[in-house]
UniProtKB/TrEMBL annotation, chain A:
GO terms for biological process: proteasome core complex assembly. It comes from the Eukaryota. Residues 13-35 are annotated as: Disordered. This is Proteasome assembly chaperone 1. The gene is Psmg1. The lineage of its organism: Eukaryota, Metazoa, Chordata, Craniata, Vertebrata. InterPro entries: Proteasome_assmbl_chp_1. It comes from Pygoscelis papua (Gentoo penguin). GO terms for molecular function: proteasome binding.
UniProtKB/TrEMBL annotation, chain B:
The keyword Chaperone applies. Keywords: Chaperone, Nucleus, Phosphoprotein. PANTHER family: PROTEASOME ASSEMBLY CHAPERONE 2. GO terms for cellular component: cytosol; nucleus. One of its GO terms (biological process) is proteasome assembly. It holds the Pfam family PAC2. This is Proteasome assembly chaperone 2. Chaperone protein which promotes assembly of the 20S proteasome as part of a heterodimer with PSMG1. The PSMG1-PSMG2 heterodimer binds to the PSMA5 and PSMA7 proteasome subunits, promotes assembly of the proteasome alpha subunits into the heteroheptameric alpha ring and prevents alpha ring dimerization. It comes from Pygoscelis papua (Gentoo penguin). It comes from the Eukaryota. The lineage of its organism: Eukaryota, Metazoa, Chordata, Craniata, Vertebrata. Its main location: nucleus. Forms a heterodimer with PSMG1. The PSMG1-PSMG2 heterodimer interacts directly with the PSMA5 and PSMA7 proteasome alpha subunits. It is found in: Nucleus. Belongs to the PSMG2 family.
């Protein structure tokens, strides 16, 4: 594979494990390596901070899991903006939590006073029905942090009778279809649902071979 | 790690004692995974569970083996387990790459699950970079096998009868010292790690791999699955060796969408 004349680039393998990476791992890890790796892992840890009724902030994994009937998660700038424009307001919703994380693409803060252009991940609760939770996540959650995000957020909730709705967007160019995406009327909605979801879905289901990845998939 | 599906069969459907576990390594050309897709699709295997793991990149979609409207709506994720008790076969399909630094923990957890579920043996489908072959490997069949010592005792003779070629070892320090030989599977993903760990843990494992390059790897998948079939006899061998395997519906549009008419 050549880029400009004379330069040969090693194509990344779909195997996912580069030979250099596996050779590196084969080396014995020195205490310094271990320390560096631990520091890096600590830096990439996710903190979920809940603001309780009393107004005091506390660390994640509250003793009592929240009772939650509906949890709506909006992932990405577009979905977060949709919630800001059409759903959220300061009268009906109150901020109850925030996720603090860092990765190469973004850093969130633990302030709840955010601008639409910031990267943030906030939790809101419907004042009239505190079992309805909403999450606006406009920051990018990296591959190695997605599982942690999932466990830490859902670990705080009771999962019985919980209905989860995930809102997200994908570029039309990524949509696989027999016709060209140029002629497709966009934007359009597609859904994926578990077999436990018995209600009517408001749009067609996502056809094979399309898939969803990253945090919405997790 | 293994989470069984809720099905009428209950725990009976996740009893794999004495079964053969077939699984792919995520490797060059995704050949192992494509071959596994062919096995699951052709034998119409039933999903019995999945792996709940933080080691693979998350993904989800609708049933990749859907044949009709009715069965197209089941969700499918990155690591799922299918079973066919009549052939004592259990298949693990992996659909996404490993997260950085997570492939080792995955291998450890996988092998301890193999031991605890008492699978009789593991067959790993894999591939290796074709451009790394030496002069001798360029001639003849591009298919190779490997057996752990425990499985060698059981089926080594059969491999001789089938006239299969064992994967060659290469010099550890080429050009300097040709006597010390090591196993080298470039582009094979976790193949070498799983194989060496199985050798040391006394697990019966066979690796079946094909030399290939990235590109349209469907023919490579057919070659590998027919190679597997020579041994395990999963389907009856036909004269036209590609017609006995059913291509899953998710293989549509592997190379992009239709063209916009405005292009012409």
């Amino acid at each position: 594979m050549a880029t400009f004349f004379g330069e040969v680039v090693v194509a990344p393998s779909r195997a996912g494990v580069d030979d250099e990476e596996s050779a590196e791992e084969a080396r014995e890890e020195t205490p310094e390596d271990r320390e560096i790796r631990r520091e890096l892992e600590k830096k990439r840890e996710i903190d979920v901070l809940w603001t309780l009724k009393s107004g005091a902030s506390t660390e994640s994994s509250a003793d009592e899991p929240f009772v939650c009937s509906k949890f709506i998660v909006a992932i990405g700038h577009n979905a977060a903006a949709f919630l800001s424009s059409f759903i959220l307001d300061s009268v009906c919703w109150e901020v109850v939590g925030v996720v603090k994380l860092w990765n190469e693409w973004c850093r969130t803060s633990n302030t709840t006073n955010v601008l639409p252009t910031d990267s943030f991940c906030l939790f809101y609760r419907l004042i009239s029905d505190p079992t309805v939770l909403l999450c606006q996540c406009s920051c990018y959650v990296a591959e190695d942090q997605q599982f942690q995000w999932l466990e830490k957020v859902f670990g705080c909730m009771r999962k019985e009778d919980l209905q989860v709705t995930v809102l997200s967007t994908c570029p039309v160019a990524d949509y696989k279809t027999q016709e060209s995406t140029l002629t497709l009327p966009s934007p359009f909605l597609k859904a994926l649902k578990t077999k436990e979801f018995k209600e009517e879905v408001c749009c067609p289901l996502l056809e094979q071979p399309n898939i969803v990845r990253d945090l919405p998939a997790a | 790690m293994f989470v069984p599906c809720d099905r009428g069969g209950g725990s009976a459907s996740s009893d794999f004692k004495g079964f053969t576990l077939l699984m792919p390594a995520v490797s060059v050309g995704n050949v192992g995974q494509l071959a596994t897709d062919l096995v699951i699709s052709t034998l119409n295997m039933t999903k019995v569970g999945y792996f709940y793991t933080d080691c693979l990149v998350p993904m989800v979609g609708n049933n990749p083996y859907a044949t009709a409207e009715e069965n197209s709506m089941e969700l499918s994720i990155n690591a799922e387990v299918y079973s066919l008790p009549s052939k004592k076969l259990v298949v693990l399909q992996i659909r996404s790459p490993f997260i950085k630094n997570k492939y080792r923990p995955f291998c450890e957890t996988l092998l301890s699950w193999v031991k605890s579920s008492k699978c009789a043996r593991v067959v790993l489908l894999s591939s290796s970079h074709a451009y790394q072959r030496d002069d001798e490997q360029l001639l003849g069949t591009p298919l190779r096998y490997l057996l752990t010592p425990d499985l060698e005792k059981a089926v080594g003779g059969l491999m001789q009868e089938l006239n299969w070629k064992e994967m060659e070892k290469v010099a550890a320090y080429p050009g300097i010292n040709d006597t010390e030989k090591v196993l080298h599977i470039p582009g094979g993903g976790i193949t070498k790690l799983l194989f060496t760990e199985s050798c040391s843990k006394g697990i019966q494992m066979a690796v079946l791999l094909k030399f290939c390059s990235e590109g349209d790897n469907i023919p490579d998948a057919f070659a590998l699955v027919n190679y597997l079939n020579e041994w395990l006899q999963l389907v009856k061998s036909e004269v036209n060796t590609s017609s006995q395997w059913k291509i899953p519906s998710s293989w549509r549009l592997l190379f992009g969408n239709g063209l916009p008419p405005a292009l012409f």
